[in-house]
Write a sequence for this structure.
């Protein structure tokens, strides 16, 4: 998990990893903070029932602190960058590849209640502000989705 958080750090900041810089980013950068906290509660969620309850508590703290709704069941690769995490919603069945950048107000989720058709985002994708991606959509590697877009099947 430490290697994944390190990859998230370098994807977000492209700077040297001094201890002071890492502490500063974790304390004052909401995007890096949201992704790092997600990594912790997601790993807790995959373990026993007590840790699953603790995972829900940490998830709620992340929502309150960063206004970013990332479900613990979402599968997210290394290097996720959230420059402005406010309003980002990532549903429970979403699969996100490595090196993805997601801007504010993006929703990745299911098309209808009761169906399990979540989007899959490839590697190196950039999704700009206020975009909605829903349904069983596969976004290919390296694509850029412009702001205020709606992507569905």
């Amino acid at each position: 998990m430490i290697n994944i958080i390190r990859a998230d750090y370098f994807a977000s900041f492209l700077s040297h990893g001094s201890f002071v810089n890492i502490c500063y980013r974790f304390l004052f950068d909401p995007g890096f903070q949201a992704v790092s906290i997600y990594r912790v509660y997601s790993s807790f969620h995959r373990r026993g029932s007590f840790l699953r309850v603790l995972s829900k508590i940490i998830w709620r703290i992340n929502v309150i602190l960063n206004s970013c709704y990332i479900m613990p069941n979402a599968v997210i690769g290394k290097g996720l960058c959230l420059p402005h995490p406010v309003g980002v919603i990532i549903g429970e069945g979403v699969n996100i590849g490595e090196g993805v950048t997601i801007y504010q107000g993006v929703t990745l989720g299911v098309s209808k209640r009761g169906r399990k058709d979540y989007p899959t985002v490839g590697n190196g994708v950039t999704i700009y502000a206020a975009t909605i991606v829903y349904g069983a959509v596969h976004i290919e590697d390296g694509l850029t989705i412009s702001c205020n877009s709606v992507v569905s099947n």
